Structures are given as structure tokens and as C-alpha cells.
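User: what does the whole thing look like in 3D?
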Amino acid sequence: VGLDFALIGHQESWRAAADVLAVLRGPYHVPLPDDEIKDILPWIPPRAICHVEATSSVGAKARGAYIDSFIPPDRLDVAYTRENLTRVRGAAACAIKAGAKIVSLGGFSSILIEGNFDQLPERHETVFTTGNTLTVAFIVQGIKKMCELEGRDLRRSTLLIVGATGDVGSGCARSLAPIVKRVQLCARNTERLRGLATELLADGVHVEIATELQRFSAEADVVICAASLASPSLRLARIAPNALICDAGYPKNLSPRAEILGATVFFGGLGQITGGMKFAPDFHGILNRHPFPDVVHGCLLEGMALALEGRFEPFSRGRGSITPQRVEEIEVIAARHGMCLAPLYNADGPVKDGRPCRTEWSR
Amino acid sequence: MEPVTNLSSLPTECTSSPLTAPIWQDVLAQAMTGELIAAMNYTALSEICDDPAEVADALEHAEGEQGHAAAFAAEGRKIGVHVANNVDAKYWKRLRIAFLRRIAEHDFIGCLIVQEIMLESFAVASYARVGKVAPGSLGRTFAAIAAEEEGHVEHAMEILRAERGLDPQRFDDKVHQLHLEVMTTLAEMLAKECKHGQCEVCHDKCVKPSLPEVALTPAELRGASLQQYLKTLDMLGLPGEVTLGWVTQLPV
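Assistant: Here's the predicted 3D structure for the full assembly of 615 residues, as C-alpha cells:
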């Protein structure tokens, strides 16, 4: 019997990878030493590691599987692109073999494949979505909620997006640019930056672009970090004091060692499935390492939402095609099944009652 | 493909420096011992086959494995070392006993699982890795034998797939039982360090710490072998999450 959905992912840290292997190894075996994990993990072929059942708030259920591509956490950079592409293709083949009707591409899987769905194996009845539209929806919702909690007026804000020309970054730009005072877009590709800026300028938005963060004036008071970084290495040099920062990267963009004076950081792009989610074997808190139950990255939730809705279509195809209309559409679908913005949190814990926790990045 | 048996008749070619020759000597000794065990296993298998075609097949495989052993011995001569073998070395003996237990039970399917799925996964993967780094004809011989071993697994796969189709749960339970016995021994043999004393195949001290000198590591030989094993089980149709659990439980 085929699955309703499959989620393709990988672990963002060796700690997370060790925890996954510990569950697979079972409770009666001592955890593997760290050096053994680093030796073993790169050799594991992509495969499903658990069954997932998602329950809609209206009671419907969707059956799926989590497929790990086993990309080693220290091999996310460009030097390993070919190897990682092979892994994602292998994971996609597992999803197809399992008869999944829709597949969400989590983390670097979508970055590797986006816009190149033709590079995936013969698909038969399986469709793929990057899941990025729902990620954008939750980032935007998170920004709005944090502004509300902190009493900030988003209309008077200068918004900086790092990784602006990516699928998530450009989707956030299109959704938020019309409601802020000014937009600063930062990305590596000048041509794509110009293209996005032209698009936003046509809508009357005040836009600045730069390939280096240092080129911007230190006025950004709302920042979205959505760059495709192999490790948390982003250093935000010039932003306003007391800025609000949404780190939406997977792996996280911001280095824990970076010092951002007075800034408030929260992790963005996360949703919660209020109807609940079951893993077999039990990977709760391992595959979704968040301080709240049933919290999942938006990209993975998108596949579950579409499965519960019975809409087996490649909703998010990548390559910067996310529009505010599509964001609104997926928000409605997700909400119908009880998928909403996850409680906000950062490295120090939950953000509470309008008094957001300061992060370890703050002084 | 031409059988690798004939490689021993290739002209002599200097393929290794004197410094690394003792390392290749031990690598060749492990490979040769494995091939001789395989030849003995196939010969024993031929004795429990009912179908004359299967008897012929098993004997042909036995002959092929002996040819591989001869090819490895010949490679040793080319680099000026004597390649010994020890089919009674502790790990190899345990593997042999596990196979003979299946023979005693006239368990044809069990024999195929042990030899073709478990032992051949190890052979195919480790020979392929050695084939990539070993110099000259030594590397070519390992690569050619790896390809040949991989080729003859296919026939066994057909039989095993059909067997699994009859009762998947029963088949998977059987593979698991054999995994616990055979793969545990192989995992101990492939561990990064020989924690339980000498393997009794290396000619002097354990070769594992010296492998980096010839661009190999114990970790990659083990990793490649277990990867090949997992892929083979995938091809048989066993659930990937289950087999990964088995593999992660193996000793390190």
C-alpha cells in the first residue's frame, strides 16, 4: 500500500545524527562513540527510517515516512554537491519505491534539487514539492507576531533579507516588501538581485541591493536570514541596535559566537500540527528537535498539509517562484488541517509574552 | 568477461614499492583466504543441491573462487612476497562454521544468504576499494575480481527474491538470525582495531594501522562493506529502516 507523503531530510549536526543512530541502535545498546558515528554515517545509503502519521484537526489522517538522505553534517558545502545530489536522488527513489504520492524536500534537499525536478528518478505517480511556500508563510507570520509582541510597527521598519534571491528569501521579499518602509536585499548573485529589485521596484517598494552586508547602512531593524549556508557562519555586521532577527536557515545561519548587540533572535519557518504527529519507531524530539511538541519545519509540513488536503501536486517548484498569493493559498490549506505558526523560540528557549528571551548572541 | 583465473599468466610487472609490499602482502592474504573459504563453501553447497544445474553452478563458482585465490597469489609473486592463507584463522573459521551449520541442515537458502549476501558484499566492496588505490596489475586484479563477484551474485538474488516472495516475514527473520551470527563476526573482523587479538592472517603485526600508507583505512573498508550489504538487502526488498537498525547494532 502506497504512502500519502514522504519527507526527505538530513541532520544538521553530528549531535542530531548521533541521536538518530542511537534510536536505530535501540535502548539495549550503548550509544556509538562520536568517532564511530563520523566513520559510519557517510556510508549509510538513503532510506526511510520511520513511519510518520499526521492527523488533521478535523480528524483526517495521512500516512507517510521520513527518509534520511544521510548527508553528513560536515559535507553540506559545494565541494560535495555531486555526492549530495546522488544522495537526494537516492532518497527520492526510496520515496517513489514506497509509493509516496507527494514528497517534501527538506533542508538542503530542496536547494540541491530546486528547479531541477527533471533530475529526479522516474516518478510515476509521485510528485515533489520543495515545501518552501509554507516555510515563507511561517517566516512572515513569525515576523508579524514578534513585531506585535515587541510593539514594533512593521510599516516603519527597514527589512534586510540575507539570501534574498533564494526560493525562501525571494518569497519573503515579495510578501513583506509591500508592508515595510524599506527593503535591503543581500545575496551573492548580482544579476538575480537586480531582477528581484526590479520586480519589487515596479510595485513602488524602496529597495537597496548589495552582495556584501557591509555595504548597507546600519538601519535594518528587521532581519531575515535565509541563506544556504553549510554551517552557522553568518556574521551580521551592520544592523540597527535592538533589531529583530529571524534565523530561518537549515542549518542555522547565525554563528552562536556572533555578538549582536541587543538583538532579539528567533528561529523562523516552523509550524505546529495541532492534530498531532506519530513516529514509529519513536523519533519524537530527535527528528523534530524543538522545545515544543509536534513542531516541524514548514517545508516538511507543506507535504503533510497537501496530503491531508488530497492535493497531490508539486505546489512549490523552487527557483524563486513563490508569490504572496501562493503563500496565502498554502496558509489556508495548512490552517484547515490545524497547522499553524509554531510557538516562537530561540537558542535560549521559548519567546514568552511579549518579553522575548535574549539569545546567547546578545550581551 | 574473461575469468580472472587467467590473470596469473599476465607478464610480470613491478607494481609496488618495497616499503608497501608487506602491507599488500597482508591485504592479499585476507583476500586469498576469503576466496579459499568461498571455494570450500561452494563445494559444500554443491553436495546439498538437488538440481543438477545448481550443482554445476556451485562447482563452477568454487572453481572461480579458486581461480581468484590463484590470481591473488600471483599478484604477490609479482611484488616479491609470498601470500599465505589461513582458513583456520579465528574469524574466517567462525564464518566457515556458520556456513557449514547451514550445510548440515541442508539449508540451501541459508547458504546463499551467508555466502552471496553477506560474504560477497564484503568481498565486492573491499576489493573495489583496494582496486582503486592499489598500483598497476594489483589494482586491476582486485577491480576485476570485484566486478566478477558482483556479477555472479545476480543469479542468487533471483532465487532469494523468489523465496522472500513466498513469506517475507519468515525470510526476513531468517536473514536476521544469520546476520546476528555472520555479520557480527565480519564486523569484528572489520573493526578499526583488532580489540580481541590478532586475526591470524597478517604475517606479522596487524596490518590495519599501516593501511593509510597505501591510501586505505579500516573505516572505509568497513563502511564500504556495510554499505554494499545494506544495498544488497534493499535489492532483496527487506525494509531499509529495519536493516539499518541491524547494522547500527553491530560491534564497532
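In plain terms: The radius of gyration of chain A is 20 Å. Residues 353-363 of chain A have pLDDT under 50 and may be disordered.
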